[in-house]
Specification:
178 residues; alpha+beta; 6-stranded antiparallel sheet; 6 helices
Length: 178
């Protein structure tokens, strides 16, 4: 796999404009992909216990289960430590309806939830509408998602999971090679 990268704007930009078929080494292209993208970039697979993974959704078993990644934003949120504000060194940012966070602080599984990787005032996220990874200023990210969800959204932040490993596109693809 090679040495994991340091997360910075240059390494995150390696994903800008990529479509999910160029990110997921297992070829899972069904459904929403915001958490799927984040999961691959941070190597959040079955070993990190962050929820359902793309390899578990394939119609046939894969020889490379560690090449999969989490695919549900709410499961990722619920597995991470919530923080009060964005960390400039990197964290995860979520946009969801306020009503989707329960009294215990857990995120529910409604369609109106989105996750991206926050780094120094910008967000790298998979836009299902655009069909590719976008790099956006936080305000633009929130406005775009608010519009899609018809407002009434909140932003939440979590730490990047301790077991996460930041990978390049080539390192992600190498996970599914013998």
């Amino acid at each position: 796999m090679g040495t994991p990268l340091v997360m910075n704007a240059t390494s995150l930009d390696a994903f800008k404009d990529k479509v999910i078929k160029d990110i997921c080494p297992l070829g899972f292209t069904t459904g929403n992909h915001c958490a799927h993208f984040v999961g691959h970039v941070l190597k959040l697979n079955s070993s990190t216990k962050t929820g359902l993974t793309c390899d578990q959704m394939l119609p046939h078993p894969t020889k490379f289960p560690n090449a999969g990644s989490c695919i549900r934003a709410n499961e990722l949120f619920n597995a991470c430590k919530v923080i009060n504000a964005a960390k400039e060194s990197g964290c995860l940012i979520y946009i969801t309806l306020a009503s989707n966070i329960d009294a215990d602080g857990k995120m529910g599984n409604i369609p109106q939830k989105h996750v991206g990787i926050y780094f120094q005032g910008e967000v790298w996220n998979y836009s299902n509408d655009a069909g590719k990874v976008l790099r956006e200023k936080v305000a633009d990210f929130k406005t775009r998602v608010d519009t899609a969800y018809h407002g009434h959204t909140i932003a939440k932040f979590t730490e990047i999971p301790a077991l996460a490993v930041f990978l390049s596109p080539a390192q992600i693809q190498a996970l599914a090679k013998p």
